[in-house]
UniProtKB/TrEMBL annotation:
<dbReference type="GO" id="GO:0048046">
    <property type="term" value="C:apoplast"/>
</dbReference>
<dbReference type="InterPro" id="IPR033138">
    <property type="entry name" value="Cu_oxidase_CS"/>
</dbReference>
<keyword id="KW-0439">Lignin degradation</keyword>
<dbReference type="InterPro" id="IPR011707">
    <property type="entry name" value="Cu-oxidase-like_N"/>
</dbReference>
<comment type="function">
    <text>Lignin degradation and detoxification of lignin-derived products.</text>
</comment>
<dbReference type="InterPro" id="IPR001117">
    <property type="entry name" value="Cu-oxidase_2nd"/>
</dbReference>
<keyword id="KW-0964">Secreted</keyword>
<feature type="domain" description="Plastocyanin-like">
    <location>
        <begin position="38"/>
        <end position="151"/>
    </location>
</feature>
<dbReference type="Pfam" id="PF07731">
    <property type="entry name" value="Cu-oxidase_2"/>
</dbReference>
<keyword id="KW-0052">Apoplast</keyword>
<feature type="domain" description="Plastocyanin-like">
    <location>
        <begin position="164"/>
        <end position="315"/>
    </location>
</feature>
<dbReference type="Pfam" id="PF07732">
    <property type="entry name" value="Cu-oxidase_3"/>
</dbReference>
<dbReference type="InterPro" id="IPR034289">
    <property type="entry name" value="CuRO_3_LCC"/>
</dbReference>
<keyword id="KW-0732">Signal</keyword>
<dbReference type="Pfam" id="PF00394">
    <property type="entry name" value="Cu-oxidase"/>
</dbReference>
<dbReference type="InterPro" id="IPR034288">
    <property type="entry name" value="CuRO_1_LCC"/>
</dbReference>
<keyword id="KW-0677">Repeat</keyword>
Length: 576
C-alpha cells in the first residue's frame, strides 16, 4: 500500500473526507471544523477480521492539520456502544481544560448517541502531536496524528523538506483489547500482549499473513523528507531505524531541539519525534526496511516482534529497475533491554534555547515534589484466586497511592466547588514510608487506594523528581503530564540524592517535552510553571500501568487576572 505525502502548499487536498470550513482571521489564525464519527467497522490484519472502534471508518484515524494560532472545533459523535472520550495529546489547552479529554478527569465520557464539540486554540506550539481515545483501552484503534504547521510566513528552523510524512506506530490485537484488559483486571494478572506492531495501521511482511499489509514510503533520490513519528502503541517503547540511512532529529513533542544525527531512535508511548531523512543522491539499486521493535525493561511478558515498512526509491524514467527484484537491506536495532542506548539517546536531546525559541526553564522553585512510580499489589477479593504475584492482584501507584477513578469528572467537581465525595486534596508530596527505592524490595508490596490530588496556586514553579522502584522489578515508565510541557533538568540511576544530584541539573537548554521515560532503576527531574488553571492528569503511558492505577492529578487554581482563569464549561459538556 502506498502513502499520501503531505506537501506544501497543497497539503489540504486530502481532506475530502471531512467537512472542513475555514474562517480567516489574519491576526489569530483560522477556525478549522472537523467531524469525528466514532463507528464500528471491520478490519482484517494477520488473517483475523474483527470489528474495531474507529473514526470516520479509518484506521488509523484521520489526521488533523492546523497552524499555530488556529482554533479547532472538533465534533465527536458517538455511534458505538462504548463510552468514548478523545484526548488531544500534548495540546497545552490553555484555559480550555474542558477540551482535554481524559474521561472522569476533565469530562464525563460521550455516551452512545451523544456528541461533544472539543473547542481549543493552539497557542505557542508547532510540530507533531496526536489524538487518541482516553478511556479504557479504546486507544488501541482510536488514534491519529496532529500536524501543527508554523504560522504563515514563519519558516522551520531547518531546511524546508521536499515532503512530509506521518509515521504512526501502533499495536494490533487479534482479540478485542477491551476484553483483554477486562479479563486482566478481573483475574489480577498481566494482560495478554498484542499480536503485532504496526506502522500507519499495517504490520508488514515479518508477520504471518501480512505481506500485503505493508507500509511503503516511495522517495526520490537527493531529496529531504520530514518524517513525523508518533508512538501510539498501548504498552511498548520502541526502537526505530531505516536501513543504511541516517536520521536527523529536529523536534520532539512539538518542540524544536538542537539537531543531531542518529541511526536509531527511541520513542515511548505518548512521545512524538520529527526527523529529517536525506535520501541518497542517486538511485541506489536497493530497497530498505524501516523497522521498529520494543525496548523492554520490565519482567512481564511482552510482544517480542518487529514491524517493518519499506523505503523504496522511485526508479529513473525508462529504466528496467522496476521489473527486477532489488536487494533488501535490514537495519540492526539495539538489544531489547539496551538501557545504555536509551540513556545516551535521551541525553542528546537539548532545547534550541535561541532568541526565537527560548527555553524558559524555571530558575527558582516554589514547590518540590518527590514521587515514586512503580508496580505493587492489591489483595485478592474474598473467595477468588488471583493471578498476580503470590496470589495477589497486580497494581501500580505514585507514592504508593493507586489512583481510584471517580464516577464523575474531577474538573466539574473543582469548578463548581463540589469536591466532597469526589476527590481529596491530600496527595502526598513525598513517599509516606521512605525505603531503598532501587534496592531490595520491601516485604509489604501492597498499595493504598484513593482519589487524591495536588493543589497548586496559579504560577507556582514546580520541581518534580520521579523515582522508579524495584518493588516488582525496576522498569522504565513513560510519564505524561496533561496541560503542560516540562523541562527535563536531570536524570540518573539508583536513588535520587537531593544533596548531590541537583548540582548537575541542566538549567540552560534542557529538552522540553510532555512525556518522559523515568529510567529503569533510576530517576528523572522535571520543572514546569503551573500557569494553566484546571485539573490535569498525570499518568504512565503504558496503558496497562494506567489501568492498574499509576496515575494522579494536579489542580491548578485560577489566577487573579481574567486571563488567568479557567473558562466556564461549554453547554454540551457530557454528563455522567
Amino acid at each position: 500500500m502506498g502513502v499520501f505525502l503531505l506537501s506544501s502548499p497543497a497539503f489540504l487536498v486530502f481532506f475530502s473526507f471531512f467537512t472542513f470550513c475555514l474562517l480567516v482571521d489574519p491576526v489569530f489564525g483560522i477556525t478549522r471544523h472537523y467531524k469525528f464519527d466514532v463507528k464500528l467497522h471491520n478490519v482484517t490484519r494477520l488473517c483475523h477480521t474483527r470489528s474495531i472502534v474507529s473514526v470516520n471508518g479509518q484506521f488509523p484515524g484521520p489526521r488533523i492539520v492546523a497552524r499555530e494560532g488556529d482554533q479547532l472545533l472538533i465534533k465527536v459523535v458517538n455511534h458505538v456502544p462504548n463510552n468514548v472520550s478523545i484526548h488531544w495529546h500534548g495540546i497545552r489547552q490553555l484555559r480550555s481544560g474542558w477540551a482535554d479529554g481524559p474521561a472522569y478527569v476533565t469530562q464525563c465520557p460521550i455516551q452512545t448517541g451523544q456528541s461533544y464539540v472539543y473547542n481549543f486554540t493552539i497557542i505557542g506550539q508547532r510540530g507533531t502531536l496526536f489524538w487518541h481515545a482516553h478511556i479504557s483501552w479504546l486507544s488501541a484503534t482510536l488514534y491519529g496524528p496532529i500536524i501543527i504547521l508554523p504560522k504563515r510566513g514563519i519558516p522551520y528552523p531547518f531546511s524546508k523538506p521536499y515532503k512530509e510524512v506521518p509515521i504512526v506506530f501502533g499495536e494490533w490485537f487479534n482479540a478485542d483489547p477491551e476484553a483483554v484488559i477486562s479479563q486482566a483486571l478481573q483475574t489480577g494478572g498481566g494482560p495478554n500482549v498484542s499480536d503485532a506492531y504496526t506502522i500507519n495501521g499495517l504490520p508488514g511482511p515479518l508477520y504471518n499473513c501480512s505481506a500485503k499489509d505493508t507500509f511503503k514510503l516511495k522517495v526520490k533520490p537527493g531529496k529531504t523528507y520530514l518524517l513525523r513519528l508518533v508512538n501510539a502503541a498501548l504498552n511498548d517503547e520502541l526502537f526505530f531505524s531505516i536501513a543504511n540511512h541516517t536520521l536527523t532529529v529536529v523536534d520532539v513533542d512539538a518542540v524544536y531541539v538542537k539537531p543531531f544525527k542518529t541511526e536509531t531512535l527511541l520513542i515511548t508511548p505518548g512521545q512524538t519525534t520529527n526527523v529529517i531523512l536525506k535520501t541518497k543522491p542517486s538511485y541506489p539499486n536497493a530497497t530498505f526496511f524501516m523497522t521498529a521493535r520494543p525496548y523492554v525493561t520490565g519482567q512481564g511478558t511482552f510482544d517480542n516482534s518487529t514491524v517493518a515498512g519499506i523505503l523504496a526509491y522511485e526508479s529513473p524514467p525508462n529504466s528496467l529497475h522496476s521489473s527486477i527484484m532489488l536487494p533488501l537491506f535490514k537495519p540492526i536495532l539495539p538489544a531489547l533491554n539496551d538501557t545504555s542506548f536509551a540513556t545516551k539517546f535521551g541525553n542528546k536531546l537539548r532545547s534550541l534555547a535561541s532568541a526565537q525559541y527560548p527555553a524558559n526553564v524555571p530558575q527558582k522553585v516554589d514547590k518540590h515534589f518527590f514521587f515514586t512510580v512503580g508496580l505493587g499489589t492489591s489483595p485478592c477479593q474474598h473467595n477468588q484466586t488471583c493471578q498476580g504475584p503470590n496470589g495477589t492482584k497486580f497494581a501500580a501507584s505514585v507514592n504508593n497511592v493507586s489512583f481510584a477513578m471517580p464516577t464523575s469528572a474531577l474538573l466539574q467537581a473543582h469548578f463548581f466547588g463540589q469536591s466532597n465525595g469526589v476527590y481529596t486534596p491530600d496527595f502526598p508530596s513525598t513517599p509516606l514510608t521512605p525505603f531503598n527505592y532501587t534496592g531490595s524490595p520491601p516485604n509489604n508490596t501492597m498499595v493504598s487506594n484513593g482519589t487524591k490530588v495536588v493543589v497548586l496556586p496559579f504560577n507556582t514553579s514546580v520541581e518534580l523528581v520521579m523515582q522508579d522502584t524495584s518493588i516488582l522489578g525496576a522498569e522504565s515508565h513513560p510519564l505524561h503530564l496533561h496541560g503542560f510541557n516540562f523541562f527535563i533538568v536531570g536524570q540518573g540511576f539508583g536513588n535520587f540524592d537531593p544533596n548531590k544530584d541537583p548540582a548537575k541539573f541542566n538549567l540552560i537548554d534542557p529538552v522540553e517535552r510532555n512525556t518522559v521515560g523515568v529510567p529503569s532503576g533510576g530517576w528523572v527531574a522535571i520543572r514546569f510553571l503551573a500557569d494553566n488553571p484546571g485539573v490535569w492528569f498525570m499518568h504512565c503511558h503504558l496503558e496497562v500501568h494506567t489501568s492498574w492505577g499509576l496515575k494522579m492529578a494536579w489542580i491548578v487554581l485560577d489566577g487573579e487576572l481574567p486571563t488567568q482563569k479557567l473558562l466556564p464549561p461549554p453547554a454540551d459538556l457530557p454528563k455522567c
